[in-house]
Amino acid sequence: MDEANRTAATQKAFNAWQQPGQAAYDFRSDTMTSPTASMLEAISNTTLLDDVFQEDPTTNDLERYVAELSGHEAAVLVMSGTMGNQVALRTHLKGPPHSVLCDIRGHIYNWEAGGVSTLSGAMLVAVQPANGHHLTLEDVQKHAVVSDDVHACPTRVISLENTLDGTIMPLDEVRKISQFARQHGIKMHLDGARIWDAVAADAGSLPEFTTCFDSVSMCFSKGLAAPIGSIIVGSKPFIAHARWIRKMIGGGTRQAGVISAAARVAVDEGFGKGPRGEGGKLRDSHARARKVAEMWESRGGELAKPVETNMVWLDIARAGIPAAEFARLAADEGLKASGGRLVVHYQISDDAIERLGRVMDKILQNSSKKRKVNGH
Ligand SMILES: Cc1ncc(COP(=O)(O)O)c(C=O)c1O
């Protein structure tokens, strides 16, 4: 039995809420974080009233709290990051012809089952950032369709993502794009699944980022470790309409206190108790991500992207290792990894990082042997 399976079995034998278990060895994503004992305690003390009728105090409090924290009027709980993006975009997009401009690497373009075209009937204009890092105002101006021409499909929403692949879109660029959008009557949406991480990296406070947007979707179930849930913030009329769309797609839940109690603990303990993530756990994840990157570089490896938050992109292609082989070598050490992207979350153990060092040794020793054989 490998380490990951052994810890999974241990989870069954003891109380799974008391320890991260398998999550401590899982670098595939921060979605693998395990809900904590304090979340279980909050769930057992939660209120159990109906959220479709907006009667549940714990859910109402969470919505009020996150709206205030992010400088918006209102908020609505949703089940997932995908639901957050799709409900927000459907709420903005009133009628065709309409298009949404986003980064070509964005989640809404690549990983939401084509939902924007199915649910909103909108065209997605996916833009390659010219600087290879983040979209700029120049990229947006070049690709936004601001036109009454009947042949055109006007841009109605600019949908940004922050962090994207763990990298940060700087606040001054977000502000410039937001100003451009407002000048042209274009709505701004943020896929802020990991905006918490941009804030914890001191790129700006939560409201500095979130008030640049008409809607923001933020996840509780990634690095913050809640079992379920995301939230959309926006104006009161926007959120009232979003609640309607959420109902339409089956996202209205009844005793939602079991979700929102854990989500509130995730925000307070994971992100922290203030607009700059004061006292949260993400800064430590970022420091550990930098440590993982240093371990790789000190052994002669190269990075495919800079480490700005909790993701480390090892350039395994340059090291001559296919993703499947990397995953296999990691599995031999009891680790879960899907390829060169390593996502570091606060539940990753010191032991897992040590084991990762041994995986790196194997890969980089092999690749330096290959280089010697090839004469460079
Ligand atoms: C940037 C981003 N947005 C949205 C989502 C979707 O979240 P969910 O898996 O909760 O639907 C993810 C998922 O990993 C994500 O990385």
UniProtKB/TrEMBL annotation:
**Source species of the chain:** Capronia coronata CBS 617.96
Please name the PANTHER family in this protein's record: L-THREONINE ALDOLASE, L-THREONINE ALDOLASE-RELATED
An annotated GO cellular component: cytosol
For the modification N6-(pyridoxal phosphate)lysine, which residues carry it? K222
NCBIfam families named in the record: GntG_guanitoxin (NF041359)
Question: What cofactor does this one take?
Answer: pyridoxal 5'-phosphate
**UniProt keyword annotations, A-Z:** Lyase, Pyridoxal phosphate
Q: What residues does the Aromatic amino acid beta-eliminating lyase/threonine aldolase domain cover?
A: 26-317
Q: Name one GO biological process term.
A: L-threonine catabolic process
Q: Is Metal-binding given among the entry's keywords?
A: no
Q: Which is an annotated Pfam family here?
A: Beta_elim_lyase
| The protein's name | Threonine aldolase
Q: Which GO terms describe its molecular function?
A: L-allo-threonine aldolase activity
The family classification in the record reads: Belongs to the threonine aldolase family.
